[in-house]
Amino acid sequence: MHIFVTGATGWVGSAVVKDLIEAGHRVSGLARSKEKAAALAATGARAVEGGLGDAAILQRAAGQADAVIHTAFRHDFVHGPLDQDFSSFMESAAEDQRVIALLGEVLAGSDRPLLVTSGLAGLPLGATEADRPSAVVPRKSESAARTLAERGVRAATVRLAPSVHGLGDHGFIPILVRLARQTGVSAYLEDGGNSWSGVYRDDAARVYRLALESGTSESVYHAVADEKVPFRQIAEIIGRNLRLPVEARPRAHFGWFANMAGGNMAASSARTRALLGWRPSGPGLLSDLDQPGYYAAGDVENV
What we know:
Elements: E1 2-6, H1 11-22, E2 26-31, H2 34-41, E3 46-49, H3 55-63, E4 67-70, H4 87-107, E5 114-118, H5 141-150, E6 155-160, E7 163-165, H6 172-183, E8 186-188, E9 195-200, H7 201-213, E10 220-223, E11 226-230, H8 231-242, E12 246-248, H9 258-261, H10 270-276, H11 285-289
Parallel strand pairs: 1-2, 1-4, 2-3, 4-5, 5-6, 6-10, 7-9, 8-12
Antiparallel strand pairs: 9-11
Helix pairs in contact: 1-7, 3-4, 4-5, 6-8
């Protein structure tokens, strides 16, 4: 297949591109600068230079592909102060919804699949692929995909665990590390008994490919390896590696990240594993976090 990937140079997207190419697929990927386009081309993919605001470029690239994987999402809010408002996230969510609609316009009337990316926020603890997120969840990737599916587009959602981990992590664990460094404590809310799930980056990437190769028969897939990890254990590993105390702190300590830090984002991937034959083989979340490389200082790049 020829597959067009948005976010092709990002944390998840670059792993998806690598996995697809190694499996023998042709890949074109969106890259928002000449430097990123050159890096993408070096992997063997065809670079499509442009951004999420370039509707004509997005639709042309999608129209030339046999399938589309949408992993791009602006994460500017991740790098700002933790006491900021969440307006930049809302802007990213609205942009994401527009992009999914644009991609769906091109694929309508064909049998070419579209996989979009979402998370586990707003789902019940232990959620399965059949559960639907609360209507109040601000990110609308999944609902946008469902709208397209109702119109006959072969659109499905890959729900990622809150921690898609690995050295070079661009996600939520680095926020907790940064907060611990800034405040001098690795913190959790209440008793820290709420749970996250995790998935190794390469394992997550493989879900997208297997979903396409299997015919994209489902509306939702779960890229979840460690299904239920108590948040306090995550805080304890961060504290040990940074040599900081591990203590409970109120919501104000976490700023805009409080809902994530206190969230129960644990889910089952039993159906995804059975349907796709997906067998996660990378390190587990806690063992991966317990290595010095995860705590090297440095800037994190937007996905």
